[in-house]
Amino acid sequence: MTQSPAAQAPTSTSGLRRVVSASMAGTVVEWYEFFLYASAATLVFGTVFFPPSDDPFAGIIAAFLTYAVGFIARPLGGIVFGHFGDKYGRKRLLQVSILLIGAATFLIGCLPSYAQIGLAAPLLLVLLRFAQGFALGGEWGGAVLLVAEHSPDRSRGFWASWPQAAVPIGNLLATLVLFVLSSTLTAEAFLGWGWRVAFWLSAVIVLIGWYIRTKVTEAPIFLEMQQEREQVKANSFGPLEVIRRYPRGVLVAMGLRVAENILYYVVVTFSIVYLTQVVKEGTSATLLILAGAHVVHFLVIPVFGRLSDALGRKRVYAAGAVLGATWAFFAFPLMQTAQPLVIWAAISLGLVFHAAMYAAQPAIMAEMFPTRMRYSGVSLGYQVTSIFAGSLAPIIATGLLAQYGSSVPVAIYVAIACAITLVAVAAARETRGLDLRTLDAVDRERLTAADSPAKVDANA
């Protein structure tokens, strides 16, 4: 087979940096909007979009339920975007996803309140939240794969960790915007219209992110696969194919995600509830503390990405899971001191432990699947888990706190999640330094032998 010049050309360092920048730009935008919703659900939505209640946790839990809708939509988005991303390319789908999430976020800022239109308010909120989640479901897989498939084998963990580092930047921006608005406006003005400004700002940054993404190209390995598929007229790609051919990879990826996803949302979302409702910390002070913790998170993610190249994916991931299991047992008592620096240290440590898992994720998941179904494989493994992990974590943690009046049950919940992920780490294969073309070669052999079931190992 003759490769096209585009497929033969290796990615230069400057080209790789441009790809990283494009992936990060869009990821910053989309996670700014996604986490803006998370923060607003904690601080605003329970009051604005739901009926009044004497229970301070009732509105928060109701808002978190709408927050969970976004996670339920993410696997559907992952399936749809994964299917077409494996067929047409990562770049096109990433451009669509950023426009969709931007439109949904802007419209949330325009929604009338419960006092104005009654039950229609939370219903419309749920619909737009679903659109947000659907778009984000396709975002992650495309963004990390665009980088992972361009990266050298020996440094894939480092380069692919940079789109992950864009997540705390997006979260930081959302937190800072809400901090400025909540600290400069009266409580009445902030609840009335101030929070909406943060959502409307998304229109500007969405266009910037979309433009940057128009300037990148597909990875050579994807172009090779696309050309080969056209020559043999193969249509074997997509979510059903990856489940049929690589069930082990999907299950292991899901298991790896459990602790990382639950720990993150307990640290960055439930901690707001704990600080404002239990410690009685002010909204502005809480947001400022979180902003500082997001800076730490951004700084350590590439460090752990580099360590995953040097020490191996499994070692770094396992260390994050073990340390994450201890976090909630000491972090919430530290928050009870009501000392801003101590609270910042507690939250920052939680994000450091999370980063050890999060940084290695793109590389280890990309190295589980062949190019023809990689987008579908990583999206399924990453997004399906979010339904029962991240989406429910703030709800479960808030419910445990309301029921027992203690953070210990929350700590046990996080520790159990970390134990599940350690099992997945043990079941995973060490893939540091793997040539992705080796996966494609093995996959071609499997397809050739497909007519002889005895020769096919479905759990490879």
Précis, in short:
The protein is mainly α and 460 residues long.
Structural class: mainly alpha
Query: How large, in whole angstroms, is the Cα Rg?
Result: 22 Å
Strand residue percentage:
under 5%
Please write the CATH class name: Mainly Alpha
Please trace the helix and strand order, writing H or E for each element. HHHHHHHHHHHHHHHHHHHH
Oligomer class: single chain
CATH architecture: Up-down Bundle
Largest sheet: none
Low-confidence stretches: 1-10
Question: What is the mean predicted local confidence, pLDDT?
Answer: 84
- For this structure, the CATH topology is Growth Hormone, Chain: A
What is the global morphology? globular
Structure summary, number of beta strands: 0
- Give the termini separation: 26 Å
- Percent helix: over 70%
Q: Spell out the CATH superfamily.
A: MFS general substrate transporter like domains
**Number of structural domains:** 1
User: Helical region count?
Assistant: 20
Q: What's the layout of helices and strands?
A:
Layout: H1 5-8, H2 13-48, H3 56-88, H4 90-108, H5 114-117, H6 120-148, H7 156-184, H8 187-200, H9 202-213, H10 220-232, H11 239-245, H12 247-278, H13 283-311, H14 313-335, H15 340-366, H16 374-383, H17 385-388, H18 393-404, H19 408-427, H20 436-448
Notes on the protein architecture:
By secondary structure, the chain is mostly helical. The protein has one domain: Growth Hormone, Chain: A, CATH 1.20.1250.20. Helix content is 80%, strand content 0%. It is built from 20 helices and no strands. It has helices at 5-8, 13-48, 56-88, 90-108, 114-117, 120-148, 156-184, 187-200, 202-213, 220-232, 239-245, 247-278, 283-311, 313-335, 340-366, 374-383, 385-388, 393-404, 408-427, 436-448. Residues 1-10 have low confidence and may be disordered.
